[in-house]
Amino acid sequence: MHYMPNKESSFDESMQQLGSLVETLEANDLPLEQALETYEKGIAVANACMKRLREAELRIEQVSFDGDEN
Length: 70
Fold this sequence. Notes:
By secondary structure, the protein is mainly α. The protein contains two helices and no strands. It has one domain (about 10-70): Helix Hairpins, CATH 1.10.287. The protein has helices at about 10-25, 30-70. Helix 1 packs antiparallel against helix 2. The longest helix is centred in the C-terminal third of the chain and has 38 residues, at about 30-70.
């Protein structure tokens, strides 16, 4: 089962969701299968956050580059 994060969530909402998933895993009281599903969700959310950060970095570079031309 592959978890797909909600593309409509903001970066901040995704980070909060990731924090919640980490807390759930750290509670250490989940059955193995549920822990694996929670971990999988966490990885998917973390990857989505990293993608958004890379996109933001590219936008910043583009704005900075455009500003250098003027």
